[in-house]
Amino acid sequence: MARLLFSLAAAAASLTSASATATSGDFNILSFNVAGLPSILNDNSVTGDKATNAGTIGTLFTEYDYDVIHVQEDFNYHAYIYATDDHPYRTATSGGAGIGSGLNTLSNFDWIDFSRTKWATCSDASGADCLTPKGFTFMRTIVSEGVYIDFYNLHADAGTEDGDEVARAANLQQVADYIDVWSIGNSVVVYGDTNSRYTRAADGITVFETQNGLTDVFVELENGGVNPTVETICDNPSLINTCETVDKVFYRSSKQLTLSATYFSYESSKFLQSDGSILSDHNPITVNYTWAVSSSFRQSGFWGGPHGTWFNDLPSLPSSPKPSKLTFSGGSRLDSVGLTLTDGTVFSHGGTGGTSASLTLGSKEYWVSAELCQGQKDGETRNFYILATTSSGNTLSAGTATSDCATFSAPTGWQIVGYLGQDGDEMDQLAFIYAPQ
């Protein structure tokens, strides 16, 4: 279960301040390929009735209450899992075999910006991977107020023929490239059925380490920090954690949030039928994480809709940033936001339309709060209005206010120093980065 090391009561009452939110905590995750293909297509060498087994899996999800569960091959027996599980947040199925990806998430945390992406490359060299639209999912999970982690769930191409390995490497590269675009500056957790081993170089499983700066928890905690060079095969159920499976978990921290993996285990002995038989041909994996918010940077919640291109000023912020000028542009809606730091760094996001307005801050004046108003344009939620207020009581606004607004205030002694969100010709989604004054 999720455990927070600071009271969330005050944070739950209002969006207006991050000063009362949790600054550290922990959570656990589970990755499980649930063998949900129809029996006529694949019995997965698992005894018993698949519908009954799926119901047992859901019951065990409820009993052990992992915080974020990613499942793969959740195809034709999806309803049986959900019927016995009680996690408050769960993705809707994308369909059975041949229609859906088999990827779903059951969580104790809510999320924003959920998406499904189909693999651009597949192979039927040794199976039927092209039969169903496998791929990966993305969600920006709200672990606590102002604490967001990007979670990815994936199921890569199976098999060991040349065509399979080419497809699998392309799958993993596709996720890595997506992370580079949509998770800039963010903490990330990636897990699922990679169908890959370190001893098969052509699989390209090291791409998450080399391109995205992610750490494999198995490698870190069970293999001395060294990628395996000798193939090891796990029993099922596995009673040891030192063997490598194709089911893997990766993660990274950010300048705003430190993630630390503290525990790794194959949960096989917890997921058995009443007669002791396995429920799936895959060993489920659990990992425990601790998290801690940086003493240098925090972030607000988001306002607006998940459209446009992701941006994040966090990686470009110096160690002690202070805005010297704010610049907004707007008309009927909020077109763009920007600011200039005292060291000359300029951040600007959004389009080129609207009327521009600026506010120069004094040497001891800080941007301390921002009101955002959102509305609908062409069926999408966008930010229509911003009102900035400084520590000296000066204000700057742009756009047109609506009735759907929220105010984001920096914690006491902190200031707004940058932005993150999504933009296009206008401001779609927006949040703020805080730093000490």
CATH topology of the largest domain: Deoxyribonuclease I, Chain A
Q: What overall form do the CA principal axes indicate?
A: elongated
CATH classification, class level of the largest domain: Alpha Beta
Biggest sheet overview: 7 strands, mixed
Pfam family, one: Jacalin
Domain Jacalin-type lectin: 308-436
Signal peptide: 1-20
Keywords: Endonuclease, Exonuclease, Hydrolase, Nuclease, Signal
Structural description of this entry:
By secondary structure, the chain is mostly beta strands. It folds into 2 domains: 3-293, Endonuclease/exonuclease/phosphatase (Deoxyribonuclease I, Chain A, 4-Layer Sandwich), CATH 3.60.10.10; 298-436, Jacalin-like lectin domain (Vitelline Membrane Outer Layer Protein I, subunit A). The chain contains 6 helices and 26 strands. The strands form 5 sheets. Strands 1, 2, 3, 4, 5, 12 and 13 form a 7-stranded mixed sheet that branches. Helix 2 (50-64) packs parallel to helix 3. It is elongated, with a radius of gyration of 23 Å.
Give the SSE layout.
Blueprint: E1 3-4, H1 9-13, E2 24-33, H2 50-64, E3 68-72, H3 78-84, E4 89-90, E5 104-107, E6 111-118, E7 135-144, E8 147-155, H4 162-182, E9 188-193, H5 207-212, E10 215-216, H6 217-222, E11 247-252, E12 257-266, E13 285-293, E14 298-299, E15 303-304, E16 309-312, E17 323-330, E18 334-341, E19 346-350, E20 355-360, E21 367-377, E22 380-390, E23 395-399, E24 405-409, E25 414-423, E26 427-436
Organism: Phialocephala subalpina
Domain Jacalin-type lectin: 308-436
Protein name: Probable endonuclease/exonuclease/phosphatase family protein
